[in-house]
Amino acid sequence: MNLLRSIAHQTSRKYYSLLDRPCSPKTLLRGLVLIMGLTLGATGCIQVQPSDSPSNKNAAPKLTLEGANGANHCSLEFKTGKYDFKGNDYCTNDRAVAIEFEHVPSASNVLLFDDYSCDRNDDGNYFWIYLRIIKEDLTVDPIFLEEIMATPPGSVVRPGVRVMDHYQYQSETPNKRTSCVQIQVDAPEL
After folding, report:
1. What is the pLDDT of residue 185?
2. CA 184 to chain centroid
3. Angle at the Cα of 187 (from 185 to 189), degrees rounded to 5?
4. Which residue, among 62, 102, 80, 86, has the nearest Cα to 178 in the 3D structure?
5. Are 180 and 150 found together in one domain?
6. Could you tell me if 59 and 97 lie in one domain?
7. Which residues contact 40 (CB under 8 A, 6 or more apart)?
8. What is the distance between the alpha carbons of residues 77 and 84, in angstroms, rounded to a whole number?
9. Of residues 162 and 4, which shows the higher confidence score?
10. What digits encode the pLDDT tens for the residues 44-90?
11. Is 105 inside any structural domain?
């Protein structure tokens, strides 16, 4: 620590003596940056947290439904269960246009439905989506539901997210129709 202070002091005297002589603004800027860097390093004011730090890995897994234009965000705890939005429980009904995952575990199934029943065999479905998480501690930016519907079953829509199957009634859209989400953690494929 004393060595760093000594170097900083000697360097600052060197660059301070430069002020007695005409010099370019570029030289002054270099000196200032060097002094600031040495000062911050010597005082320990610079702290860097690695991206794979425990605080990131221990974050609670969640699924977020994003509404149009980034509005109507709704987050669900990523645990085995069925979340129907009847009466706007859990989330506001019929708002989602995209889905996002944060720190979710591998070997999980995620199903989205337009119907409160969460049943792929319901004849009244306008759409349903079945996704499989294939990467541990998965975090991905929002994936638009239309993009998922355009992805062939069995294909990866984003690294770590496989589209297992989907259904869309004629020319209907999955946008702003999600009424139920089913999550199965550490589960076999359906």
Report:
1. 98
2. 20
3. 125
4. 86
5. yes
6. yes
7. 46
8. 13
9. 162
10. 444 433 344 344 667 899 999 999 887 778 999 999 999 999 887 78
11. yes
Same domain as 83, residue 155: yes
Structural domain boundaries enclosing 59: 54-184
Length of the chain: 190
Report the distance separating Cα 42 and Cα 8, nearest Å.
Answer: 9
Query: Are 61 and 104 in contact, with CB atoms under 8 Å apart?
Result: yes
39 and 64 part of one domain: no
Kindly state whether residues 27 and 95 are assigned to the same domain.
no
* 143: CATH: 2.60.20.10
Note whether 28 and 115 are same-domain residues: no
Residues 26 and 64 sit within 8 Å (Cβ to Cβ): no
Judged against a pLDDT cut of 80, whether residue 27 lies above it is answered with no
Model confidence at 174: pLDDT above 80: yes
Quick one: 77 and 19 in the same domain? no
Give the 3-state secondary structure of 122-188.
Answer: CCCCCEEEEEEECCCCEEEEEEEHHHHHHCCCCCEEECCEEEEEEEECCCCCCCCCCCEEEEECCCC
